[in-house]
Amino acid sequence: MSRRKKGRIALSAYDVEIYEALQEPKVFADLVNGSLFAGRQLIREDMLEEENEKGLVKAQDNHGNPAIIYRVRDNSKKGYFSENRLKVILAVENQRSVHYGMPVRNMMYDAIAYTKEAKTLEQQNRKSLALQKSEEFLSGLKKEDKLSPVLTLIFYYGENQHWDGPVSLHEMLNIPKELESWKNYIPDYKINLVSSETVNKNNFRTGLKEVFELLKVFSNKDELEQLLKEKEAHYKSLDIEKSRLIETFLDIPVLKENQEKYRDERGKVNMCTAIRDMVKSGEKRGEERGEERSARLAFLLAKMDRLEDLEKISKDKEYRDKLFQEFGI
After folding, report:
1. Rg (CA), the chain
2. N or C: the chain end with fewer CB closer than 10 Å?
3. How does pLDDT run across 30-60, given as a tens digit for each residue?
4. Average pLDDT over residues 276-282
């Protein structure tokens, strides 16, 4: 969900909204608890600290030249457990589209996090002259040194909630049948995919509950309308906090453009009306776009004196779609 600009990562406006929503400790903790721990409150707001989301590791390229691997985490926080502040790094990657290389991409992110930890320990050990044995000097780590675990979620909030990409490194590998016996010796890497298909919405305590409930039906207009009818009393009177999460993750333009239109005197938001207005607006834009495409196609056919085709597209939708593709319209 980010784009490159002059050699660095720059978040788009939409990315920033998602990033900021998950920076809220209450929402971040709810996402982790609801996704991984069936709603048990293992992560509390007061256990979280900001973690630098940038990953910077020195390496070498294929020619042995100095290189730097640079990655940006969408969201990451440190969670401390027990009195000795046992640390766990919690990270979230936000995806609005399926990423077919996500296991490799996320494996790199986690590897960078572990490499940074190991480097920090090494620097501390060498500075304090804590290394005693040759094995310790080789790695810069003492036998008793331990790294903090890194736990990463892939939060998929695309309109179509079916993730048809790989969820493990093994799924991406081309292993011939005759070498299947090798598979157990090839390390695997699995991602923790979070979407409306993989979670129980009732495990969440913030507006993420409504986000996942709506995401499940958002790509189907009839199912969406059915949900709004069944839960109209709930969705016509949502508090601001929940409505903002829905507006952010489901990207509802009419709410962003005119929030006051959908608020009552108590400050509650009528999400039913907002979503229905969005659907109508989308249908209208779709009709206008269809009319523009048809008019453009008719103009080009007339200009090329393809009169038979011009007559045929007025009756045959499949042929019209075929010509849309032919002309790149």
Report:
1. 26
2. C
3. 998 999 899 998 888 887 776 655 544 444 5
4. 80
Q: Which residues pair with 77 in a beta bridge?
A: 50, 90
Q: What tokens appear for 289 in the block?
A: 């776009």
3-state secondary structure of 151: strand
Distance, CA of 271 to CA of 277 (rounded, Å): 10
- Split at pLDDT 50, 70, 90, the class of 135 is confident
Q: Contact at 8 Å (CB) between 254 and 279?
A: no
Q: How many CB atoms lie within 10 A of CB 96?
A: 16
Place of tokens 């926080």: 77
Distance, first Cα to last Cα, the chain: 27
Could you give the CA distance from residue 58 to residue 72 in angstroms, rounded to a whole number? 15
Q: What is the tally of helices (H) and strands (E) in the chain?
A: 12, 9
Give the residue, 158 or 52, on which the prediction is more confident: 158
Q: Are 205 and 34 in contact (CB under 8 A)?
A: yes
Which residue, among 10, 18, 23, has the nearest Cα to 97 in the 3D structure?
18
Residue that has been written with the tokens 């495409």 in this structure: 293
- The reported pTM is 0.71
With cut-offs at 50, 70 and 90, classify the pLDDT of residue 3. Answer: very low
